[in-house]
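Suppose you are handed a protein chain with no further information: no name, no annotation, nothing but its sequence. What can you learn? This example shows the usual starting point.
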Amino acid sequence: MANEYGIIVKDTSGNVVKLTPDIANVVSAGVLTMPSGLVDTNKYYGSIDLPGSDPISVSNIGYVESIYIHRFRLHATVAEHPTGRYMINFFADDAYTNYTKNLSTGVMTTWTPGDVSDLDDASKCDGVFCINSIGYWEKFGASSVTDVKIFAAMMYHVYDGGDSAFKDAYLIYTNGINEVTYAITQRRKVVE
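A reasonable first move is to predict its three-dimensional structure. Written in structure tokens, the prediction is:
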């Protein structure tokens, strides 16, 4: 069946083109509970199947997510300055499983922060400079897929006192982000 909608453009030579809107259909939407641990050889994601069994080009898929349940896990210390002012410092918490992530492969590695037992020992104090929730579609370089892999975690920008380096540490599931709301769209196929 020919598409009944669109704009027909003709030139003086008789060439005709029919312009149709590029509309996407929502193929999946809902709330995804993130996995409780690493999956697929030390990666982390929740998976949403796409319709059908044939791979779909990633250029034909749209993805939106909203993170609405997140938790903060860190040490807070309060120190009094000689002037009577108080300073609050935040440190990564060794009571929870922290991870670092290789962004090109998606592989996550356990990272153990210092235990904050001695504030004068840099190797025991990994300062937190920024905390934010992070979530995205994890494509792993694929050009077509049969499912959408969703990554979501709390990311801590820390200074690793033991390594004398800045790094991003992630907390997952109930120590980070437990659920995401998502919508996945697929570009409508135009039938001429």
